[in-house]
Amino acid sequence: MLLNRRILVGICGGIASYKAVELVSRLQQAGALVDVILSERAEEFIRPLTFSALSHRPVYSDLWEPSGRAAETHIALGEEAELLAVVPATANTIAKLAHGIADNMMTAVALATKAPLLLAPAMHSAMYVHPATQANLDQLRARGAFIVEPEVGRLASGETGIGRLPETPVLLGAIRIVLGRDGELAGRRVVVTAGGTHEPIDPVRFVGNRSSGKMGYALATEARDRGADVVLISGPTALEVPYGVKVQRVETALQMRDAVFEAVAGADALVMSAAVADFRPAEVAPQKLKKGGGGEQGQGAEDGFSLRLVRNPDILGELAKAEDGQLAEKKSWRHPVRVGFAAETSDLLTYGRSKLVAKHLDLLVANDVSRPDSGFGTETNKVLIFHTDGTVEDLPVMPKAGVAAAIWDRIGPLLRTM
């Protein structure tokens, strides 16, 4: 979504300005057209050449340069911009923006543009919590500015407190949110499940699978970038939650079922990409099972022990039955677009068609997890998409972010029929 987007990055004179280097680089790598504006004090911390080398575009800083071209430039920059992101935003610049002061290139562009404004404040804690700074931020919020709240951490002063500029992934996420807030999913609420589930045997061991959650997290990120209000129900993963996505963490299939039933009320779409365990231990030992016979539970044996499994709930199947029963009686209930996933190792066509019908789905996405380019934990995926009219799309191998985009491209038209 960043390809060919015109983004202005304003950089203020603060020690956190060095973090803007990676931000500009990542934006340019994503295909954005990035123009950098430095405040007069920002050049005390970092030189314009750094940003021009990364953005492959001129860097602007002097509103009062002798040729007079800057007067025309600041208007052109403002008219062409799709977003003005001020990173880091100092207390001084925040005050100027709140009160319409245009005494340098950055603030003059801000006053001349109709593009949305994103601010990432970074300063000492005392300056950030000061009533004047908070009042200025409130005023900018009221005018539609998007504020990326600073983090608590170690500050340049050596103290620990609020005022630290977030890392680049958070800043990129905020930029994507602002650029996508009028996207095709704006005003839509979607629920995405991700990761596997851990079904406990005892306090130490569990039955699970190899799901990394990468596909589900990519789906949540893509929906966020298209303007959706996203609820991510996540099993155990090692992934960072995408900025701006609401997350509910669960561990077991039963917990995921309860979370889905609660979250899906009022949702426009449910995308069940989680690899929910089909079975769970019939009994969970309260203490760790011992290898030797006569352990704490007396269940161990030198040659192993037997584990009796029971079937976990079929979440989509139970939801379909509930929709035909008690949920159908609720006037507030609406049928969300439902997308299921099938991780298979053979015969994708047969299993895909069967699950699409059995679980009352609008789309079914199937992949062969035995493939090295499509299995659990990979960066790419190779999927078939099954439609209710019998169509089966065979998508090429692509990054999981690309697969997520393709899936939402197909959910979008279904939402428009609701």
Can you walk through the features of this model?
The protein is of the alpha/beta class and 418 residues long. The protein folds into two domains: 6-180, Flavin prenyltransferase-like (Rossmann fold), CATH 3.40.50.1950; 189-416, 3-Layer(aba) Sandwich (Rossmann fold). The chain contains 13 helices and 22 strands. Strand 10 (199-200) and strand 11 (206-207) form a beta hairpin. Helix 1 (19-29) packs across helix 8, helix 3 (69-80) packs across helix 5 and helix 9 (214-225) crosses helix 13. It is elongated, with a radius of gyration of 26 Å. Residues 294-299 have low confidence and may be disordered.
Structural class, by secondary structure, is alpha/beta
Q: Tell me the count of domains.
A: 2
Total number of strands: 22
In CATH terms, the superfamily of the largest domain is CoaB-like
Task: Please render the helix and strand layout as text.
Elements: E1 6-11, H1 19-29, E2 33-38, H2 48-55, E3 59-60, H3 69-80, E4 83-89, H4 91-98, H5 105-112, E5 117-121, H6 125-129, H7 131-142, E6 146-147, E7 151-154, E8 160-164, H8 168-180, E9 189-194, E10 199-200, E11 206-207, H9 214-225, E12 229-234, E13 246-249, H10 253-263, E14 269-272, E15 279-281, E16 309-311, H11 315-324, E17 337-344, H12 348-358, E18 363-368, E19 380-381, E20 383-387, E21 392-394, E22 398-399, H13 400-416
Helix pairs in contact: 1-2, 1-8, 3-5, 4-7, 9-13
